[in-house]
Specification:
By secondary structure, this protein is mainly alpha-helical. The protein contains 17 helices and 5 strands. The chain binds zinc ion.
């Protein structure tokens, strides 16, 4: 399952601007760029901020805005670099410091995340939310420092001790093979090394706050509870590939992918039996419309989540059928700000026929989609 989305970070940042933490919008430099950000037009905003920065390279607000544009475009590294410049120019620039911490965390740079949040907490020691967040991240850092690493070219697997080494070896092997098999199916080959952390079941719940039903999580790194993993190695393999698909999707489209596509692809491309989805759909009279499955499934209870995964898997199967071998290119369109309907149309799939076929396959008779 997905634990956090970069989109959520962008919105938090934009809200901070809107809440007047910085200044009223009239006082912001390059007002058209901020307006473009509000519209979600990252390319336009990035271009205007770039021009403005040519004239005023030391303006922290312009670097901050530029970081938002980068986040909208899914360019995490560029966002981090802009935010570093913003806080370099103004070390007391609170929203930039907090956003830097959040983006660093989402990019699996826990050191930078903790360092930045420490500075933010020093500026606002009464902010309980920030203090609690910092305590949580420090706990995570301490835990990881006690872990061993099985380093690789594409995957760094962290695990607690000798007892988990065998699981670490298995996870590495499964990931190496997923890299080429999923790569072939989606035409996505992540370039950056991916961090994979194996937890006890309790550590996993503590760190992720994931619901009971989740068997793993992805938030920039793969987190897996492996308490009894070797008793059911097939389940472990399934979860590992599922979470790997999320990381591949994020490579193609860091933002803009609805959960029903993201979770659907992850479920559809997992190894193992696919007939469970039909059984779940048959057993339930309810159907969740696609528009209610845009954000992650973390807020659903167990049975609702299962239904959401089943419906999404059917949608993903249909997507792959219709788009093959262009699923990766389709996802890139979503990442570049196209809607699902626009991206389908671009690939010659009329959205209405797509949704009608999905409704037929999941067994919806009314006009819901
Ligand atoms: Zn998932």
């Amino acid at each position: 399952m997905l634990l956090i989305s970069v989109r959520a970070l962008v919105m938090t940042g934009a809200l901070m601007v809107a809440a007047g933490t910085l200044a009223s919008s009239q006082e912001l430099p390059a007002p058209e760029a901020w307006a473009a950000l509000e519209r979600g037009d990252g390319s336009r905003a990035a271009a205007i901020f770039r021009d403005a920065l040519d004239r005023a390279p030391h303006n922290p607000l312009l670097h901050y805005g530029s970081a938002h544009a980068s986040l909208l475009l899914g360019r995490t590294d560029a966002a981090i670099s802009s935010l570093k410049k913003a806080v370099e120019q103004n070390p007391r620039f609170m929203p930039a410091m907090v956003l830097l911490a959040q983006v660093a965390y989402s990019a699996a740079d826990l050191d930078l995340a903790v360092r930045s949040l420490e500075k933010a907490v020093a500026m606002a020691p009464r902010d309980r939310e920030l203090t609690a967040q910092l305590a949580k991240w420090k706990k995570e850092t301490d835990l990881h420092q006690s872990f061993q690493t099985r380093p690789g070219v594409r995957f760094n697997v962290l695990f607690e001790g000798p007892a988990q080494r065998a699981i670490g070896d298995r996870v590495s092997a499964v990931l190496e093979s997923a890299y080429s098999s999923i790569g072939k199916q989606l035409d996505i080959y992540p370039g950056a090394a991916l961090e994979v952390i194996l937890y006890s079941n309790k550590q996993f719940r503590d760190i992720t706050r994931a619901p009971e039903w989740s068997g793993g999580g992805y938030d920039g790194r793969i987190r897996l509870p492996v308490g009894n993993a070797l008793r059911s190695p097939q389940v472990l393999d399934r979860v590992v590939v599922h979470e790997y698909v999320h990381s591949a999707v994020r490579t193609a489209a860091p933002t803009g992918v609805p959960a029903w596509i993201n979770e659907g692809l992850a479920s559809y491309l997992e190894p193992g039996d696919k007939t469970w989805a039909a059984r779940v759909l048959k057993a339930s009279g309810d159907r969740i419309p696609l528009e209610d499955m845009v954000e992650g499934f973390g807020g659903f209870d167990g049975p609702t989540a299962l239904l959401a995964y089943a419906e999404s898997q059917v949608a993903a199967e249909l997507l792959v059928e219709r788009l093959k071998p262009h699923v990766g290119a389709f996802l890139q369109l979503l990442g570049n700000g196209h809607t699902v309907d626009q991206a389908l149309s671009r690939h010659g799939v009329p959205p209405e026929t797509f949704y009608a076929e999905w409704r037929r396959r999941v067994g919806v008779r009314d006009a819901t989609r």
